[in-house]
Design goal:
The complex is a heterodimer of chains A (332) and B (258). With 332 residues, chain A is of the alpha/beta class. Chain A has helices at 5-28, 45-52, 55-58, 71-80, 90-98, 143-154, 170-178, 191-196, 211-216, 229-234, 236-255, 257-268, 272-280, 287-294, 299-313; strands at 34-38, 63-67, 85-89, 104-108, 111-113, 117-122, 135-138, 164-167, 184-188, 201-206, 223-228, 282-284. The longest helix of chain A is centred in the N-terminal third of the chain and has 24 residues, at 5-28. The N and C termini of chain A lie far apart (65 Å). Chain B is mainly α and 258 residues long. Chain B has one domain (46-257): MetI-like fold (Orthogonal Bundle), CATH 1.10.3720. The A-B interface holds A 70, 72, 75-76, 79, 92, 95-96, 99-101, 137, 140-141, 164-169, 172, 175-176, 179, 181-182, 316-318 and B 39-42, 121-122, 125-126, 205-209, 214, 218, 220-225.
């Protein structure tokens, strides 16, 4: 039967209205699995292990893993409400705090790493000053970018005129360094380990050379765990269970690094030996340590605030947010 | 029955209408943002974008971004046009050449400029040539197809008539083909120039320190959406400015058409 325009509009409306009406119900479905945004970076080891070894599911929490290449992509997904929980380098979250974002809360910090990222150079370079006039490959807006800017500042060098900073995504650093297109590379694990393993290459500086690390034991981009404000309102118990799972995974990383490494190599692509070394050189916080870091005396929060102020002085963000306003340690 | 004839609007009044439309759009945008209906992280108001532009102009970085991208677009686009125009005319006039090159063109045609990034990094490193090559590869095949189509659209009767009148191959090219397809080639190049600007965003994703694409991506990393919107606005303005130059060139080249 031929359909006139009115009939066509009526049937289209009949199809669309229930679809639109039903759409919010999908979002409101009870006991839905929550999504965690991560990557191969060690800040996400705890969540990955808790997912893969069934720690979360034993606690009745279903968490799905979603990979993102950069922290900013991950935070974009947090802002859009596409993921519920995430780990991130703090630079991205500080940038959002500076912009006044209210869509997330910082709920914990999973680890302390000082030697998993740094500035790699040819063996004949022994100090920062020798990099004058050289090309340094670094991923802009990352923790290693902050580290390089701080190292240059400590050496009294101008990042705009004394060296040439080349913006390269983390996966491109290895090939650019191998191809002699850059003289130095600022990278984090696993790229950091791969470049470090190259002949005639050494670590010129790692996070322990960062000025705030010396004073507050804070790295240029410490990892934080986030939950969306929406999840915090709708299902705070899920956040508590999530953190319990994270600390259980941290205990495994501390006490059984070989066992944890076997799970992690499928995502990092490191050899078992490299993976074990990366785990062992990182400190994995327990729930008890969290309280002293985030609540009293709260040295981590103080360090984050100092980092925010440093980012302003390094012209990375416009203003320093009051970090404590985004912190919620009530789920510990 | 007497026909009602509406008075024609003058060019001046139409221009005012366009200006008022633009101002109305900006005012509505500003009001929506200021009302709190939209979070400024998702969409900053025009006043915030303007403030960012003033700051960056004061720091002396804004012009550098515009010039860097314009240079990359122009070099990549001109190189693509320089190769595509003669090659396209040849392919448009020779069935044998088309049979040889068509499979390669069909293979290259769907590839977006971004897909060339890994290979271009290996071939050219992280210097400016790599960025020119991305713009070139993103613009070349579409330009080639425009020129081929423009050449093939010439009425074969005109070519046969010229040949019957004793015109040599070069004379047919100069007197019939080129004048016939030039307007269409220039129209195509105007579109390709716009396309080159989309390629420069891909080109500046990797190993760039300046440029509007870099500015947008860096703004995105720090969630400075005012910087992102400013970059987008500047791309539009720069494309409009280059379009004016191309139109002037078109008027000069096609003066015989008027």
């Amino acid at each position: 039967m031929p359909m006139n325009r009115r009939a066509l509009l009526r049937s289209t409306a009949a199809a669309i209205v229930p679809a639109i009406g039903g759409f919010p119900l999908i979002g409101r479905a009870a006991n839905r699995p929550y999504t965690y945004g991560g990557s191969a970076w060690l800040g996400h080891y705890s969540a990955y292990i808790a997912i893969k070894t069934g720690i979360f599911s034993k606690k009745g929490l279903e968490i799905k893993w979603q990979s993102f290449p950069t922290s900013s992509d991950r935070m974009g997904a947090v802002m859009a409400g596409s993921i519920d929980l995430a780990g991130t380098g703090v630079v991205s979250s500080l940038a959002l705090m500076a912009a006044g974002a209210s869509q997330f809360k910082v709920i914990a910090t999973p680890n302390n790493f000082g030697r998993a990222e740094g500035l790699l150079v040819r063996s004949n370079v022994s100090n920062i000053a020798q990099l004058k006039g050289k090309k340094i490959g670094v991923t802009f807006a990352s923790s290693t970018h902050v580290l390089v800017l701080d190292l240059l500042k400590q050496a009294g060098m101008n990042p705009d005129s004394d060296v040439s900073l080349i913006n390269l995504p983390a996966p491109n650093l290895l090939s650019a360094y191998q191809g002699n297109q850059i003289d130095a590379a600022a990278a984090w694990t696993p790229s950091f380990d791969r470049i470090k393993a190259l002949p005639n290459t050494r670590v010129l500086a790692d996070d322990t050379s960062f000025s705030l690390y010396k004073e507050y034991s804070i790295t240029p981009g410490p990892d934080v765990l986030l939950a969306t404000t929406k999840l915090a309102k709708e299902d705070p118990a899920a956040i508590k269970t999530f953190l319990q799972g994270i600390f259980e995974a941290n205990a495994m990383l501390t006490n059984a690094p070989e066992e944890a490494a076997k799970v992690l190599i499928e995502i990092t692509g490191l050899t078992l030996e490299e993976q074990v070394n990366t785990i062992k050189q990182t400190g994995w916080y327990s729930a008890e340590q969290q309280r002293s870091l985030l609540v009293a005396p709260g040295s981590f929060v103080t360090g984050m605030q100092k980092l925010a102020e440093m980012l302003v002085s390094l012209k990375q963000i416009d203003k320093a947010p009051v970090v404590r306003n985004w912190l919620d340690a009530g789920y510990l | 029955m007497a026909e009602v004839v509406k008075p024609r609007k003058s060019a001046g009044s139409l221009a005012w209408l366009s200006v008022l439309s633009l101002l109305g759009f900006l005012a509505a945008w500003e009001l929506i943002c200021r009302s709190g209906a939209v979070d400024p992280i998702f969409l900053p108001p025009p006043s915030q974008v303007w403030a960012r532009a003033s700051t960056m102009f004061g720091q002396g970085t804004l012009l550098g971004h515009v010039l860097a991208s314009t240079r990359r677009v122009m070099v990549g686009f001109l190189a693509a046009a320089a190769v595509a125009i003669p090659l396209g005319i040849w392919l448009g006039t020779s069935r044998i050449a088309r049979a040889i090159f068509d499979p390669v063109i069909s293979f290259l045609r769907p590839l977006p400029s971004m897909s060339w990034i890994p290979l271009s990094l290996l071939w050219f490193g992280i210097n400016e040539t790599q960025k020119y090559s991305i713009v070139f590869m993103g613009s070349f095949v579409p330009a080639l197809l425009y020129v081929m189509e423009a050449t093939r659209s010439i009425d074969p009767l005109l070519i046969r008539a010229a040949r019957n009148l004793g015109a040599q191959r070069w004379q047919v090219m100069r007197e019939v083909l080129l004048p016939g397809c030039l307007p269409q080639i220039i129209s195509g190049m105007k579109i390709i120039l716009g396309l080159s600007w989309t390629c420069v965003i891909s080109a500046e994703l990797v190993a760039a320190k300046e440029g509007l694409g870099f500015m947008i991506m860096n703004g995105k990393e720090f969630f400075q959406t005012d910087t992102v919107v400013l970059g987008m606005v500047l791309i539009s303005f720069t494309v409009l400015a280059t379009d004016l130059v191309v139109r002037a060139l078109e008027r000069w080249l096609l003066a015989w058409q008027r």
